[in-house]
């Protein structure tokens, strides 16, 4: 074997990221600096919400709360709320950027040539057609090196129709009349343990863990996009859906680190990863504990150039788990990746990468069933969902199929399935709306326990269900995974005792009774990411309601001023006003924020608008704390709540149509 194809330095899309960042953060706003004024408003907690005196339905006012505890309230969001509806549409189906169909395919054990593709490849004479495969494997990087290199065996093993494969990763080439016509990559799950060494003893069988992740999908977006998957989860698998699962950090890394190690990013730096050039080998990943218990471990992730431990990081030195898919996906992506949309290649050759990943998961689980091995499998799919709000829809059938398969094959009779995301979408239009902002902080989480286990350990299930309506975090999920190392200890007595002695802590097992008065603070959720919101209706003629509304009207007029054919708008009436904030409203200090959502009528045209005006307090040098000045800005765009009809025929711009009242 010779070392080759090594040290692929990959920093290609940094410019792209910067571009995305700017596109994502073009929040339209005007920054006004206003003097501090005391809030002279009477606050009435509108809870539950009452219908107000206006005729048009303001959806938010009809909403209840999903999480309704002493410590946290999270509003129930309508996936198709008018304020976000414009961002929800059908995308064009993804097609791989290749002209020819696949010529070779793989099943659990073998490679075979797809005869029906011969025509497309103009293969007529089989005596001049041959394929062969190269075996490759991971090459452990040296200190400071990235986790990308492979060793490839230069012997190409020939086959014509099909061949049994005993290796994990192969590269395939096919030739017709001496010229290369096809290149592809395949992965298998060969046993990496002694077969038939299962000791039949009286010990109870452990529960395998299957963690299936879909990057960047809020709970609400999952409901929008993946109806079939939702249906299987809820109706067939009887999964528990967590309504108050709140992210603890901005992007994928901190949120998954919390699950996999129980540590925050800062703590991780102190404990095991001091330097961005370090590898993560010494970190206390939960899979190490499962490994100690003789579970077979596997970690598989698509879109691997921006991998959880590899994006601007160095990954691992020794491969972290028994099966490590990155070796395959990175290599294949480098050589046959195509159809790059925004960040990453969606396809490997003629196949969608997330589908290859799902097939791999199925093969992995099948193999473990055949070999009767308990497993811990963490897989993460970012390719499909990372960049586009409306792409997860394309994966709906495939995820539904996989979950259904796990169900039908009784895999889930001995496996805990955890289906989750890390956060909602972090850019694109919806992110600039109030709801999009909240969704971003609330990823989905579903947990499925074997039916018999729920019966035998009723308190586990009871608590799980109760906790689904409480504020929960990735740290809790970590604790839960620790509990599942020894699922048979979780008797009602054990849980009751633990509940009595446990003092308030940052994390709880989801099988424990999470305190009803838990707050973002006590759960260590930074207030910036806290989805617990207090909504307070304020008088429409109060100073802040009027100020916020006038600000919104001025904002509209500023937009309109570029269009000579549109008339200036004047405020006619404020319909409703409310303020939402997180944290303690009486201790607002520097950086504190309040969001005023106002709906109002303007003339001419009697247009009804809804705007969210954010008030941000800041401290200036020399000013007393009492005199906190603040800025106002529009978050997202201003929504039009009634139809504009022919009022705006004189403009074609989509957004201006909402605002423009044409000169006659
Ligand atoms: C390379 O592959 C060939 C064919 O499978 C095999 O005979 C040989 O032992 C392999 N070489 C190494 C170093 O594994
Ligand atoms: C996989 O494909 C090979 C070759 O076509 C076939 O002989 C084998 O039965 C297949 N195995 C499974 C599990 O389908
Ligand atoms: C193969 O290639 C040779 C030379 O390039 C050519 O003469 C021959 O006709 C080809 N045969 C087939 C079956 O295409
Ligand atoms: C980080 O690692 C690099 C390379 O090993 C080393 O040169 C540097 O001093 C380290 N920095 C810190 C803060 O440890
Ligand atoms: C598709 O492939 C063509 C030719 O290789 C290339 O020019 C084009 O940029 C690719 N498009 C995408 C979206 O990857
Ligand atoms: C499910 O698992 C339980 C406990 O391990 C076992 O008793 C039962 O037979 C299994 N059922 C099926 C359908 O495999
Ligand atoms: C929740 O209630 C417990 C006991 O009543 C109390 O000790 C704890 O401080 C409370 N936590 C918060 C965050 O208010
Ligand atoms: C707002 O209007 C109500 C009823 O019209 C009135 O009682 C109240 O004093 C007004 N508040 C302010 C701040 O003007
Ligand atoms: C519209 O309003 C802007 C600012 O409020 C003002 O400068 C402008 O003169 C007005 N235009 C008309 C036609 O009234
Ligand atoms: C809110 O902040 C004020 C002022 O700092 C403090 O007196 C009050 O106790 C706080 N309330 C809560 C519920 O933390």
- Rg computed from alpha carbons, rounded to a whole number of angstroms: 28 Å
The residue-averaged pLDDT reads 84
Number of strands: 28
Q: Which spans of ≥5 residues are poorly predicted at pLDDT below 50?
A: 1-62, 583-587, 620-626
So, the CATH homologous superfamily of the largest domain? Alkaline Phosphatase, subunit A
Neighbour order of strands in the largest sheet = 2-28-27-26-25-24-3
CATH hierarchy, class of the largest domain = Alpha Beta
CATH topology of the largest domain: Alkaline Phosphatase, subunit A
Name the structural class: alpha+beta
Q: Percent of residues in helical segments?
A: 25-40%
Counting DSSP H or I runs of 4 or more residues, the number of helices is: 17
State the assembly state of the protein chains: single chain
| Distance, first to last CA | 80 Å
Q: What is the total number of structural domains?
A: 3
Task: Name the shape in a single word.
Answer: globular
Description:
This protein has 664 residues and is an alpha+beta fold. It folds into three domains: 103-187, no CATH class; 207-522, Alkaline Phosphatase, subunit A, CATH 3.40.720; 536-658, Roll (Nuclear Transport Factor 2, Chain: A), CATH 3.10.450. Helix content is 26%, strand content 23%. The strands form six sheets. A seven-stranded antiparallel sheet has the order 2-28-27-26-25-24-3, with helices on one face. Strand 19 and strand 20 (351-352) form a beta hairpin. The chain starts with a strand and ends in a 5-residue tail after the last helix. The structure holds 2-acetamido-2-deoxy-beta-D-glucopyranose (10 copies). One 2-acetamido-2-deoxy-beta-D-glucopyranose binds at residues 539, 541-542.
């Amino acid at each position: 074997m010779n070392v080759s194809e090594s040290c692929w330095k990959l920093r290609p899309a940094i410019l792209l990221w910067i571009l995305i960042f700017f596109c994502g953060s073009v929040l339209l706003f005007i920054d006004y600096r206003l003097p501090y004024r005391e809030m002279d408003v009477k606050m009435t907690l509108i809870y539950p919400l009452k219908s107000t005196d206006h005729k048009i339905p303001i959806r938010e006012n009809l909403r209840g709360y999903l999480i309704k505890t002493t410590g946290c309230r999270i509003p129930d969001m309508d996936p198709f709320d008018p304020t976000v509806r414009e961002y929800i549409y059908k995308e064009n189906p993804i097609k791989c950027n290749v002209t020819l169909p696949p010529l070779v395919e793989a099943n659990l054990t073998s490679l075979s040539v797809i005869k029906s593709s011969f025509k497309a490849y103009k293969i007529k004479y089989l005596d001049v057609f041959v394929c062969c495969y190269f075996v490759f494997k991971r090459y452990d990087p040296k200190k400071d090196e990235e986790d990308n290199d492979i060793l490839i065996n230069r012997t190409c093993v020939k086959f014509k129709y099909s061949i049994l494969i005993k290796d994990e990763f192969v590269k395939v080439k096919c030739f017709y009349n001496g010229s290369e016509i096809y290149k592809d990559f395949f992965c298998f799950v060969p046993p990496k343990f002694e077969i038939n060494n299962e000791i039949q003893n009286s010990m109870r069988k452990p529960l395998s863990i299957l963690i299936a992740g879909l990057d960047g999908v809020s709970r609400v977006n999952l409901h929008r996009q993946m109806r079939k998957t939702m249906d299987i989860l809820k109706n067939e698998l009887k999964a528990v859906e967590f309504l108050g699962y709140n992210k603890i950090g901005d992007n994928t890394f901190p949120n998954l680190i919390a699950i996999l190690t129980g540590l925050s990013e800062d703590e991780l730096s102190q404990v095991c990863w001091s330097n961005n050039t370090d590898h993560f080998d010494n970190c206390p990943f939960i899979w190490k504990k499962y490994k100690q218990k003789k579970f077979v471990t596997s970690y598989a992730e698509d879109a691997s150039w921006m991998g959880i431990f590899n994006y601007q990081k160095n990954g691992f030195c020794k491969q972290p788990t028994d099966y490590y898919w990155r070796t395959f996906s990175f290599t294949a992506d480098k050589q046959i990746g195509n159809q790059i949309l925004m960040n990453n290649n969606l396809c490997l050759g003629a196949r969608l990468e997330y589908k290859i990943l799902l097939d791999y998961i199925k093969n992995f689980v099948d193999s473990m069933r055949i070999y009767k091995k308990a497993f811990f499998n963490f897989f993460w799919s970012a390719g499909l969902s990372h960049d586009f709000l409306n792409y997860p829809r394309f994966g709906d059938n495939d995820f539904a199929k996989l979950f259904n398969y796990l169900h039908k094959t009784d895999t889930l009779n001995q496996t805990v399935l955890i289906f989750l995301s890390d956060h909602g979408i972090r850019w694109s239009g919806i992110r600039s709306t109030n709801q999009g902002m909240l969704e971003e902080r609330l990823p989905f989480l579903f947990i499925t326990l074997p039916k018999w286990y729920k019966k035998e350990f009723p308190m586990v299930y009871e608590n799980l269900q109760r906790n689904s309506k409480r504020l929960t975090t990735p740290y809790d999920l970590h604790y839960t995974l620790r509990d599942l190392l020894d699922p048979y200890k979780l008797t009602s007595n054990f849980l009751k005792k633990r509940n009595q002695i446990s003092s308030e802590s940052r994390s709880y097992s989801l099988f424990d009774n999470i305190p009803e008065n838990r707050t973002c603070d006590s759960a260590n959720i930074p207030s910036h990411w806290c989805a617990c919101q207090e909504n307070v209706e304020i008088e429409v003629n109060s100073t802040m309601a009027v100020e916020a509304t006038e600000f919104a009207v001025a904002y509209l007029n500023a937009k309109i001023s570029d269009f000579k054919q549109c008339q200036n708008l004047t405020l006619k009436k404020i319909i409703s006003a409310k303020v939402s904030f997180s944290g303690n409203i009486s201790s607002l200090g520097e950086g504190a924020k309040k969001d005023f959502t106002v709906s109002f009528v303007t003339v001419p045209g009697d247009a009804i608008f809804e705007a969210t005006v954010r008030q941000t307090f800041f401290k200036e040098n020399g000013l007393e704390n009492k005199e906190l000045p603040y800025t106002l800005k529009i978050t997202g765009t201003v929504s039009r709540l009634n139809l504009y009809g022919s009022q705006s025929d004189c403009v074609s711009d989509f957004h201006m149509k909402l605002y423009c009242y044409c000169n006659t």
